[in-house]
Amino acid sequence: LGLVPPRHSMLMVRENKMASTIAVAEKKSVDAARHAFTNDSAFMIAYERAIETEKKGSDGDSSEVCLVDDPFARMLAGNKGKELSDSFGISAAPQFGLWPDFHKQWTVVRTKFIDDHIARIVNEFEASAICGEQLQFLNLGAGLDTRSLRLKAMAKITTSYEVDMEAINGPKGDLFEAIGAGSEHPFLCQRNIVTANMTNDGELEASLVESGFDRERATIVLAEGLIMYLGDKAETFLKDVSRIVVASGSWLILNFIEHPALTNEKVRELLMRGGWKDLVFNCFGDEVLDY
Model-level pTM? Predict the structure, then answer.
């Protein structure tokens, strides 16, 4: 019996006593913030970024190739991230050719792919921009994404709009604050947290407008690990994104699992109708998504 993994695809479209007491208090604060954060998949993804980052060792040197450098991932994931990742690897192994580390590898590959393309787009835009114009970044279903803290290219972005549901954004803010994001670890660009339920018609657009999103500014749109959770609203979501992001020079990076209701051909049709062009599809294990 041959077991074929689902097609995971990426789409590119153009020590004293006082000190000890303080440390304990800070640890409790991070633990409390993690406890309040309820998005288990975000913990798992953060942990999987962490284990790749830690290949380089504490001195920054390693004989292994380290594809992702996220110094915040371990602090965000805690012990729960490892538990979730290991458990998922065992339970999902039959879907992935009996490969329990499939998702760990996929997380690293897709993170590397996205990081590299964001950097490329930003640098190319900067080289051709008129009067210092800058891109904005729209991160849909941001979860515990740390690019606005760690990815150097984000320093050339005017604003990062990070969109998720209220149940995610409230505890996320506390967790980021607890690890020193925005204080000890400054954000690389202005960052707007946007609350929206993307399955509700019109809510994403209304929330973005309220947050100051500039529809006329070229935008990098990222939907990583999101669309597969939208169910029968996935098609409506893609139409909404195409209606909201209208500026010339914008790019969409879409991560999705191909299935009968959402094939490459269906995604291509929806996006071309929405005005996107130069669509490029890559599948995990092809010559591009193969690190």
Answer: 0.87
